[in-house]
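**Reference record**
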Amino acid sequence: MLNVRQSDGSLPEVTLLHLQSTSTMIDKGTNVGYTFFGTAPDLGAYEYSTTTAVSEINSSESDVLIYYSAGNSEINIKGSISSVDVFEYSGRKVYSKNIETDNLSIPANNFKRSIYLVRVTSAEGKTLVRKILVD
């Protein structure tokens, strides 16, 4: 829990509650429509994969980078952007913009200290959602 942040500013990778490769809980769940690896969902808090870091799993889905810059108090988004929505963790939308750009900075100085969900739709129509801690 005392690890340093990753190079992109995101939180360190924590493996607490992650399954080990020898676990008997891998591929033992019931498919209820969520994404999973293998022949069936895993039992437990996280889906087992040889690639465990969330950013690595999702990097093939989109070339969009989303991060919070505390120094500028803004959420930065880089990549092919068509629209952006920012939600409080409770679900209330606090920002929305339809814009065709490759670089967007959202001022966050009026956002309270909390976790926000940032939903970005790319020009190709792919949707990416990331959790961002605004402090």
The first strand starts at residue 65 and ends at 69. Confidence is low (pLDDT under 50) at residues 51-61.
